[in-house]
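Late entry, evening session. Most of the bench is empty. Finally got around to the prediction I had been postponing all week. Sequence below, unchanged from the version circulated by S.P.
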Amino acid sequence: MDLALSLTGKIPTAKLSTDARLLLVTENVKQHHVDRALPWLASTGGSGDLTFLSPLLNAWDAAERGDQAAALSAINQIPAKSLLGPLRDEEQALILLKFHRPAEAEPFARRAIGAAGAREARVRLALADGFLAAGDRTRAAAMVDGMISDSAAARQRILAGKPTGEGINTTAEALSSVLTAFGAEVARLQHAAPPIGLVQVARYADPGNSGATALLGLLLDSQDRGDEALALLGAIPLDNALISQVRDVQVRILTHDKRFNEAYAIAAAAVQNPAAGLSDYSRLGDVLEAMDRHNEAADAFGRAVAVANAQGLKSELWPLLLLQASALEEANRWPEARTALQQALAIAPDEPVLLNFMGYAKLERGEDVDAAEAMIRKASQLAPDDASITDSLGWAQFKRGKTDEAIETLQKAAEKDPEQAEIQEHLGDALYTSGRRFEARFAWHAALVTAEDKVADRVKEKLASGLTPANAAP
């Protein structure tokens, strides 16, 4: 960063990139010179206007100076439709908490949590620390209630009067949090190159922002810089309040690189902690599934289900039961898988992915074929743009002898997702059965582009010798 700051001084102002200007803003903020930071937000050259950040800097600068009225006035100047608009409730709550006004902060805090999306864990922890600093342990604990990741450990710390370390108390920390949120949104939309520079500036503003570090790890991995990402993430202490998110990123990178033993070591170590939670058991299940250790994966997901039940996390139950059912089915334990799916459907009877899974699995086994097709058809009506569900409907039609209807449905699925090997294989099988063998070979060749393992082997056999009962898709 010293080198980057030095280089910015040698570049004409009009040619500075957005990241460079944000770095200069951050440097001045860290030196407590917000007055010098603000001019760098103005549009220069073609790098865009950053003045939407001005109310944020003015609000926190006033708060740090103890000027409550000016701080709140600045927050109220954030337009609802500006880039900063979605974070206004969050900033309002944090400013009010800085001035020890927890009762007034609570409604803003609750709205902020509801709008946080993938940032929910860090927002909850930051607000909990704010309420704790304002002397309100009850509201602080309420902020972590319902938090899926590490909620028990976080609540225990808060109730003991110990901050989690995720509090936002300075202008630099507030700026870091906002830049991290923007970086995550840019990465999600994928309309541009990974915003590594933006996230690095966020980390420079607040080196303790572990959420920014976790995001940077993901961005580095997206550029095939997995070892750099793992080294970065490995430096985060195990007692960090967001260590669960850090482990998720580590395991994701290692699993993607097929370094399963290393991924398993991290996931298995996490569940040895007496405070292990839902996310820890679910993470272990994901790793075991990737290792084809399906029985153990089903057990891990079962423990996650038990934790969700114990903590009353009803919204998490059906996805966990679905994961458990998938592992059980892979382990050839269909009766248990069916039970798990029935439990999930009792919770979410109109969830398309559950209806599709149950219907498809029953169809494969010849169980209640009329009901099975009806389930898949309902799933398709609920999620008409889901290519996998459209594929299931087409395959159900094919299995029941409605070949022409099946081909039409499978072609729609292939148009929605031409890169999914299973869809192309199903389409090829249906076309071959109807006598359209040239078109079938075209579909099978398309399947081979992305097919792996058993699917690839089956498709190669079909291309070599045609469709037979031995190589037909299940």
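Two things to note before I forget:
The mean pLDDT is 92.
The CA atoms of residues 387 and 413 lie 5 Å apart.
Will write this up properly tomorrow.
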